């Protein structure tokens, strides 16, 4: 439940969510997760009536792989990036 206080007005907005006991969640965990994925509705898991966990769908910005290629075209590689950074003679441990 969200409470919005606008100086003199108080509004209560009940979100579209489901409340389920821990025992029911344990018995139907995969089905609950699939339902959250399909509907986008949050599920609150309770133990003895107290909320202990919240199952929420992932945010759209957290898709795996979105970061791959994000910097493409922003940098230019010059020189040899595969070879050693300095000559072997510069390292006493190698000599």
Features:
95 residues, alpha+beta, YefM-like fold, elongated
Describe this structure in words.
The protein starts with a strand and ends in a 40-residue tail after the last strand. The longest helix is centred in the middle third of the chain and has 11 residues, at 29-39. With 95 residues, it is of the alpha+beta class. It is 18% helix and 28% strand. The protein has a three-stranded mixed beta sheet. 2% of the residues are buried. It has a domain at 15-58: YefM-like fold (3-Layer(aba) Sandwich).
Brief characterization of the structure:
With 95 residues, the chain is of the alpha+beta class. The chain has 2 helices and 5 strands. The chain starts with a strand and ends in a 40-residue tail after the last strand.
Could you say what the CATH topology of the domain at 15-58 is called? YefM-like fold
Q: Tell me the span between the first and last alpha carbons.
A: 70 Å
User: Could you spell the SSE succession in H and E letters?
Assistant: EEEHHEE
- Helical content class: 10-25%
Strand order of the largest sheet: 3-4-5
Helix/strand-derived class?
alpha+beta
Largest sheet: 3 strands, mixed
CATH superfamily of the domain at 15-58: YefM-like domain
What's the architecture of the domain at 15-58, going by CATH?
A: 3-Layer(aba) Sandwich
Q: Uncertain runs with pLDDT below 50, 5 residues or more?
A: 8-13
Residues in β-strands, percent: 25-35%
- The whole-number mean of residue pLDDT values reads 79
CATH class bucket of the domain at 15-58: Alpha Beta
Radius of gyration based on Cα positions: 27 Å
Number of helices: 2
Basic shape: elongated
Number of strands: 5
